């Protein structure tokens, strides 16, 4: 028989996984607090791979959330439940949570998202979070999502959108159903996110007449019945020009467009 020399095996697949697991177990068994702190200072996201005792160690977790200049919220979510209820620690994570990776709908992981339910109902903590990033409002308690000071701060901040008011979409249902609050919002931020108002407000002729007098583009968010209401549509056109006819009902759009063409 011809002797063949076996080809060297590459460390891949299950072999690599097994080796990594063995190394991880060895590190967990031999690592002390100082080594754990150095580990998370070098790479804060390594906190998730440490033993549970280090995830419950305040010094280790504090080192991790203060060392991460991007996603301290993602690091905090690896901490023990008890430490995610530590107000000072959560505030440290919020302060260092300068970057949030958002999904297409604007959501993402923030330090407030990782905090305990108790701290998400703490106005001081929530204000600190939304001042840096308005998107954090979605993780606040229901009561604070209806707090005018908190919502206004979130809309002004909207970290990744330069304060365009998108945070209003995460306000409480009660806030978005409040006529005075939503009209005040419209006066500051325009029509873009006025569609987050309650269906009742968007179907209220009195409210929409005031709204289109402020910004005719608000017609795009009105109920179908009001898009077919001559008074509402004419008020929108008077404020913002014939371009808003695209939002009117097909019948009114055709009628008023034809009338405009005849007058030219």
TrEMBL record:
Top-level taxon of origin: Eukaryota
Signal peptide limits: none
Domain named DUF4116: residues: 73-120, 122-160, 204-252
Pfam families listed in its UniProt record: DUF4116
InterPro entries: DUF4116
Transmembrane domains' residue ranges: none
The name this protein goes by in its record: DUF4116 domain-containing protein
Organism: Prymnesium polylepis
């Amino acid at each position: 028989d011809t002797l063949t020399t076996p080809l060297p095996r590459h460390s891949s697949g299950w072999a690599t996984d097994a080796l990594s697991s063995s190394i991880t177990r060895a590190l967990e068994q031999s690592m002390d607090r100082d080594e754990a702190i150095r580990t998370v200072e070098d790479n804060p996201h390594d906190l998730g791979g440490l033993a549970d005792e280090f995830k419950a160690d305040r010094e280790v977790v504090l080192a991790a959330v203060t060392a991460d200049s991007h996603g301290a919220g993602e690091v905090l979510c690896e901490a023990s439940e008890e430490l995610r209820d530590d107000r000072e620690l959560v505030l440290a994570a919020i302060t260092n949570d300068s970057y949030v990776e958002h999904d297409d709908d604007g959501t993402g992981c923030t330090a407030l998202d990782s905090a305990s339910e108790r701290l998400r109902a703490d106005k001081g903590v929530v204000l600190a979070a939304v001042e840096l990033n308005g998107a954090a409002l979605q993780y606040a308690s229901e009561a604070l999502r209806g707090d005018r000071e908190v919502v206004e701060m979130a809309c002004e901040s909207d970290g990744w959108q330069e304060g365009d008011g998108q945070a209003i979409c995460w306000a409480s249902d009660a806030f978005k159903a409040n006529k005075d609050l939503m009209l005040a919002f419209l006066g500051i931020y325009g029509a873009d996110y006025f569609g987050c108002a309650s269906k009742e407000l968007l179907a209220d002729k009195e409210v929409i007449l005031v709204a289109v007098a402020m910004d005719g583009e608000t017609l795009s968010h009105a109920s179908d019945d009001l898009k077919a209401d001559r008074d509402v549509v004419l008020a929108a056109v008077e404020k913002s020009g014939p371009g808003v006819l695209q939002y009117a009902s097909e019948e009114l759009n055709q009628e008023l467009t034809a009338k405009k063409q005849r007058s030219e």
